[in-house]
TrEMBL record:
One of its GO terms (cellular component) is plasma membrane. Pfam families: Peptidase_M13_N. GO terms for molecular function: metalloendopeptidase activity. Residues 14-220 form the Peptidase M13 N-terminal domain. One of its GO terms (biological process) is protein processing. This is MMEL1 protein.
Length: 220
């Protein structure tokens, strides 16, 4: 109750400006950070929680249960920036190798990889190893008709961009769409360079344009 009152502006007339009356205190005491598009009590609570979690994850893991140890190992691996820089793109190249490589970042994928490449097998690897749903979203969850059991759900996946609006609308959506395509092109060029594949910018642009076209069709 005290927090609600603190976030109000009792000097404002609710019949004239109810928003100022209800939220004026909050507006006077908070500024949206430059790194955020919004700022609410939930954002503040999340920031406070992250500080607490940081303290917990940086404590010694002696005597911790296995789940806590795994969380601390994951946190330490993310914070080890020197090793991340040293490994460079190797983890990404290894992930690509596990799913049959990437045609746009290969010199002869259609000859060396495609004959033995299986969509079903690689979709399952993407799901089980990398928690990435492509083309089909498949997961196990409570049965809506019988909550005592779990069933397999099959659904449409999420898109590469936040919503289908980004694929069709103009204005800022179009600028994001153009940047998204350029990002894909840049990543493909980077991987080709790291794999010592000869430079072919026109081929990369054509292939990434096809990817964009496919994503657009899925969004539609």
């Amino acid at each position: 109750a005290a927090r609600i009152i603190q976030n109000m502006d009792p000097t404002a007339d609710p019949c004239q400006d109810f928003y100022q009356y209800a939220c004026g205190g909050w507006l006077n005491r908070h500024v949206i950070p430059e790194t955020s598009s919004r700022y609410s009590i939930f954002d503040i609570l999340r920031d406070e929680l992250e500080i607490i979690l940081k303290g917990v994850l940086e404590t010694s893991d002696q005597g911790d249960r296995e789940a806590f140890q795994k969380a601390k190992i994951l946190y330490k691996s993310c914070m080890n920036e020197s090793l991340i820089e040293q490994r460079d793109s190797l983890p990404l190249l290894e992930a690509l190798r596990m799913v049959g490589d990437w045609p746009v970042a290969s010199a002869d994928w259609s000859k060396t990889k495609e004959p033995s490449w299986s969509m079903e097998e690689n979709l399952s690897i993407m799901n089980s190893r990398f928690n990435k749903r492509v083309l089909i979203d498949m997961f196990v969850w409570n049965d809506d008709r019988d909550s005592s059991r779990h069933i397999i759900y099959i659904d449409q996946p999420s898109l590469g961009m936040p919503s289908r609006d980004y694929y069709f609308n103009g204005g800022n959506y179009q600028r994001v769409r153009e940047a998204y395509l350029q990002f894909m092109i840049t990543i493909a060029k980077m991987i080709r360079e790291d794999k010592n594949v000869s430079r072919d910018d026109s081929f990369v642009q054509e292939e990434m344009a096809k990817v964009m076209e496919l994503e657009t069709e899925i969004a539609n």
